Amino acid sequence: MSCLQTLSDYGLRAIGYGERILPREDITLCEQFVLIGSGMIWNVYFGTLALLSGFVLANAVAVAKASPNPLLRKPAEWFILIFRGSPLFIQFFLAYFIFLRLKNGIPGTDFLTSAAAGALVVLFLNTAAYSAEIFYGALRSVPKGEVEAADAYGLSGWARFRRILWPTQMRLAWPAYTNEAIFLFHATTLVFFTGFPALRQQGDALYYASYFADKTFNPFVPYPILAMYFIILTLVILGIFGLVNRRLNRHMPHTVQAGMRAPRAIFR
Amino acid sequence: MLEGLTWLSCYMTTGKHLTAYWSFVTVLVLLAITAPTALVFGFGGAVAARSRIAPLRWFGKGYIAVVRGVPDIAFFLFFVIALDQAFEWMRHKALCPDWTDPIRQGNDFVVCQAAKLPLSSSPQWVHEVYGFALAVLTFAIVFGAFAANVLFGAMRAVPKGQIETAEAYGMTPRQTFWRVLVPQMWVYALPGLSNLWMVLIKATPLLFLLGVEDIVYWARELGGIKTSRFTDYPHGDWRLWYFLALLVFYLAFTKLSEVVLARWTKKLSHGQATLGEMA
Fold it and tell me: For chain A, which has fewer Cβ within 10 Å, the N-terminal or C-terminal residue?
């Protein structure tokens, strides 16, 4: 079987198109490349949607945490504490069991027990909490002079936030937020190793990599392939975020603009 | 029939539950062994990444870079099999030199009986300890790379003037490294290492994926539906409550660590002109 044939059989296998049965015997290098690549569709799906939706919520939570009103601040603090203080792995399990209960209790919520929706909700809330903490930190380090200048111009409330605080907050938060994005995409590999089922063996890249490692009993092929895909993905994220960073810093002197190297701190 | 609190206190002290409580100790032991080991790996990695010998430097930088670019779960799943096979292969080479068959036969990995790890004749606890040791080594390799990144940054953060002064006093590079650079780098490394400790705590449930009977394993085991045929304490699907308990455990653990680490940071940066002092 040629590699082109394999590509058409398994290229979209992860989302349910093509050959139904996964390769079992005489597994070729091509099959491993194609299927693990096919699994990356899920990683990109989870990562992109969670990042975009999480970004919106994170901004709201960051502003709420900076608010003097305890009715806004306290919930935001608890939200961040719970999602940052506990392992994502446990959050996936817990959420899955909550969704199972919902399914039995409330009709119409059964879609949440699928990975595509349920795991996305968990990733969305998780990245929102981590990003909110980053944005909150950045909001607190907006230079005082800028705020005073805004006051002097008579800007207040929404206009001050929208035109002065938020752009600076984003600019300061961006390197850390880039890391968060990379980590989020890496965290998407956890989904199919928690309660969420991989229906009809439609899983993500790591799901297929571990499938091949189990079948061939040789981890030295599938995992490096997976690593290659993820390094490419990481480089793409760095590239896109670098472009945004250039735009955020376009008014700054060039010496500062060049300051966006690969960020040093790599954790969430 | 037992009711209410009496029932609960009996239920929480069944033999299986008492075994499960020991798995919390497993997590703590893992942390206690992994943290220093990872620090040693990290120190080695950072020194390698700064080395003047090019291949060593490439190795150090590559070690740091690959772990950054690839999900840690992939490393966990990879190393657990890879290390096992590597050990068995080395033993195979040493113990059965006259074996001629290839080790990889189709989809199988075949070594001679004497090279099996652990030996098939060994008792159950040896299997468990071996599995746990593999997990610890895997954690140390992955977190060693993270630590290497932190220490590499910390070594570069030590003010140049300090190094130049040491050199001006006639210290050899080795002396400069051990007497000036290493003692001073910790204060710069502390924020990163604190962060790393938190990440390490939150990575411990991944032990479950490595086949260790840890707290996640027990939460699934004990929480599942129990009928009265097999137990005196039948109940429905309680996994939700068990995982809620795990969540609370981790929240308390990370919160406690945060408080302790903040105190240390303050103490260690005493008299140093860093942000930790001002905070």
Answer: N
pLDDT tens sequence across A65-99? 998 999 999 999 999 999 999 999 999 989 998 88
Inter-chain contact A85–B251, Cβ cutoff 8 Å? Answer: yes
Question: Chain B 57-86, CB below 8 Å of chain A: which residues?
Answer: 66, 68-74, 77-78, 81-82, 85
pLDDT in tens, B217-265: 888 877 777 776 667 667 777 788 888 988 999 999 999 998 998 888 8
- Which residues does residue B206 pair with via DSSP β-bridges, in sequence order? none
* Amino acid identity, position A98: I
**So where are chain B's domains?**
214-279
Instruction: For chain A, list the domains and their CATH numbers.
Output: 45-219+236-257 (1.10.3720.10)
Give chain A's end-to-end CA distance (angstroms, integer): 44
What DSSP assignment string belongs to A77-119? HHHHHHHHHS-HHHHHHHHHHHHHHHHHHSTT-GGGGSIIIII
DSSP state of B111: -
| Chain A positions in Cβ-Cβ contact with residue B154 (cut-off 8 Å) | none
Q: CA gyration radius for chain B?
A: 24
Burial of A71 from C-beta contacts in 10 A (0-12 / 13-18 / 19+): exposed
C-alpha B72/C-alpha A223 separation (Å) is 12
